[in-house]
Structure formats: structure tokens, C-alpha cells
Amino acid sequence: MKEMYFDAVVIGGGAAGMAAAQELDQAGFSCAIIEREEQLGGILTQCIHNGFGLIEFKEELTGPEFAERVEERLQGTTIRIFTATTVMEMETTADPKLLYCYSAQWGILRLSCRLVVLAMGCRERNRGNIRIPGDRPAGVYTAGLAQRLVNIEGYVPGKDIVIIGSGDIGLIMARRMSWVGCKVHAVVEILPYPSGLTRNIVQCLNDFDIPLYLSHLTTNIIGRDRVEGVEITPIENGALMHEKAFTIPCDTVLLSVGLVPENELSKVAGVELNPMTNGPQVDSMLMTNVPGVFACGNVLHVHDLVDYVVEESRRAGASAAQWLKGRRPQHEARLKVGANVRYVAPGRVDLQADNKIYLRSLIVKNDALLEVKVNSRVVKSQKKSHIQPSEMIELHLSPKDLEAAIGAPDPLVEIAIN
Amino acid sequence: MSEELICITCPLGCHLTIERRPDNTLGVSGNRCARGVRYACEELLSPKRMVTATVRICRPFQAEAAACGETGLGSVARLPVRTSQAYPKEGVAGLLADIYRLEVTVPVKRGTVLLADYKGSGIDIIAARSLQV
Q: If A38 and its partner were Cys, which of A417, B26, B65, B74 is the partner (CB 3.0–4.6 Å)?
């Protein structure tokens, strides 16, 4: 068994892991990235469409270009990169922390370190998660798996496609499948509104005359060996209208029904998760309940833009470096989810520092008001011209905004949307 | 006759109604800012799209390398490419057909021009990632 020591180990070599590692390296700490794929870049390498980087690089890039630009920042650093290496287990209670990794090159690799950054990203929800009844034929894929097959491995998984769920990956795949010569017959969404961005509805569905069935549930997948069709049932006033059900013939079903942060490893290591995000509960430094274990990117909460993943991960890397130097937050307040807010990340703010918070709304609204209360008194309010659940909202809270919380026993900061 | 569009310049997503006037100009309503008018004019008069696709990779000694599991490319079999700028929408199908005919030998560097000045449009097809053998 090969053994090595690093001050910090980052698990995951996507946008989040690379950005966090760069900060740790810049602060002078030895750092390793463990990546299970053969290359760095994470999910970005299969997202070959454009629309990334407008904030981070001030230009519109494709996923692979964004990943490579972030990777180029690692040139000249001393970050040790282990690709094709999987972390199987973490022992985080002892000092140093121990990570057991497997790889073809090293066999079993044991890394000891003072600090771990979780940057494993997320997984797709699948057929089992949403319980679609019916047969179990070949031809049912998650949208992201199909995206990998088409864009990286060069396999087209079918010819006549129905997409279930109107998330952005599903919409992007509707255009991709059309562009590789398939016929996309429908996108089926259970909710009365699409869960993806408007621009993706316009450019990925309308351009190809792909019908979008809102308030429709997939009630059956039909086919013995291969998918032959899906049965779709309209929902009216919350009830399934079985007499109006219809079947769309197809040979392939793609599921775009949401993402879940990948925290199997975190759970085993005793990291507490937030049931609203499925990511770790973190403090104002983006540290989990396990001292010295930090989290950032999609493993913390599912982001809408990779630009924000990089921003957050740089912050996680920088505060991890400060933690190694001995900094601990002195005065923190808990953040509370108020009206119309699905979640806030992180879960705590530092009363003596500038805090950046990401949150998601539960509602679609124009001219909304974002309100921050300290112990029930409004201390900050911001107008938002448009909010919707698919877009994250950014909020800054300065020591001045949080003045009222200083000295209060167990202060509570509540964020609400009205 | 009026046409309807959803403006995608920003997340507000204004529903635009556009009248084609007899003098060939457009009358746009439903927009909340000037960018809505610009979007409607471009989308109705000369719609363009960024095109992204992939091309086949031709690897030296591919079979041998794969057999001993030694290729750094792993399961990568396609190189992502994109247009340097948005391309006229009506020509996208033809452009894709021409992209799919390309074959690229690795190593290749991000930004390499694979098809220059496509059909005199001034738009190039460029590699969107670097690949080493």
C-alpha cells in the first residue's frame, strides 16, 4: 500500500475541486486532487453546448472549454493530481485524517492529511427515484448518461426519443438528439410550468417543434425487450385524467428529473446533511460538522451556473486555508429559511465578516422582495425584478447588516421572499 | 398578421408580439426594454444559432493502446467543436452534416480551426477541448 501525506486533499476534480485546490496551493499548503475519471473537468467535459463562463471568464464558452480554462490555472502549482482514482473510505475523526483510495496505477493508496474538501458533485435522479410504472425494457436512460454516450463516447442510444422531465439537461439533450439525427417526440413535465430556463425552452424545443406536455404524468413505459412507447396521462386540478391518457410510440426514454448531491462518502464519514439540499450542513467557512472537512460546488447544493460553483469553491478553498492557519469563526448566527425560500447555503453567517449566501426560491415572481431579518427585525431588503426556482439568488450580508445580532444570545438570521 | 416570440435576452422572458408593417419594418410590443426589440428583429429577420457538435477522433494505434488499457483518452471517442460565432439558422443542418464528415487526429489543441471561413460566412469551426494521446 502506497502512503502519502498532504496538508489538504480535495475529493473530485471538476470545476469545484480544481478551484478549491488552487486556493489551498496559493496559500502555501500541499494539496492533492483525487478524481475517479481519467481526466479532470467533471461533468463539464460532456456539456459540449455553450452558455458557460459569462461571469467567470466574461465570455461565452462550452463546458469543455470552461473546464480546460480552469485546469490551466493549475499549471505551475504543486498540486498533485490523482486521476482514475476513487476514494473508498475516509477516517476523519483522527488527526491526521486518512483516505483510502483505489486506482489501477497505485493499487490501494492511503493519503493522510489535515483537511478534506468534498467536491464530488451530484448524481442524476433515475427511474427508481420517481417510480415510473411499467415494463423494464432496454432504452431507458438518464439524460446525463445519454449526454455522455453521445458527446464523449460517440454512441447514439436510440432514434425516437421521449424526454421525461423538463430540467435543463433534458432540454439540452432534446436539441442534441435532434442535431444527431434523432426525432424527439415530446418532453413530458408533471408540473404546470417548465423546470428549465426559458432560453432552453425556446432554443432547444421551439426550434425543433418539439411538443412540451405540462401537467402530464408518465403512467407507463411499454415494451418487452426494448422501449416501444410511453403512456402519458394529463393532470387536471391535481387528478389524473385516465380517460384522456395517450401513448407516444418511441424506442428511447431520457429522464431529466433532477440531481442529488453525491454524499455517500460524506455520510459514512459522519457528515450531517441538510434535508432540503441533500448536501452537507456547513458553517460560514463552508465547513461541515466534522472539523476540517469542507464542502463546495454541487455536492453542497445543486447550482444553476458553473460560474457560481467556481466562485463558491474558491471561497471554500480560501477559508480551508485559513482554517489550517488556525482561524475559527468567533461569532456566528444561524440562518433560517423564511417564507417562499427553499434553502439557503451556507447554514450560518459570520457576524464579523462579509458573507455570501446562495438561496433558491419556491416561487416564480416578478418584482419580489428579498428580506433579511435578525431576531424578527428587518435589517435588509432587496428588490428582485424576477425570481424563479430554477435560478439561484445571490445575497451579500456584511457585518453592518448583521450588527443587530452581535451580543444577542443564539442570534437567528431569517431570509424570506415576499 | 402578428407573430409571437419569447425574448430570451434575460430571465424575465417577455412575451413579444410583432407586427410586420407594410413598409417591411417590425412593430414590437410586450417588451419591457429596448433589448426586446433588438431580439425580435434579429430573430425574425436573420435568426442565428451557436452550433456545438462533436467530430470523430482518429487515434494512432488506437486498437493496441485500448487493448493494454494504456490510452490517456480513456473512453473519449469524440472531440467537441463549436462555431466561432452564431451561424444563420437555416444553414445549421448543412453545417452539421459537414461537421460530422470531419475527422481529427490527436493530439489536438483547444481553439484549433478545423473548418475555416465556412462557406464564406467568416465563421470557423473550432476544437472546444485539447486532447493528448
A: B74
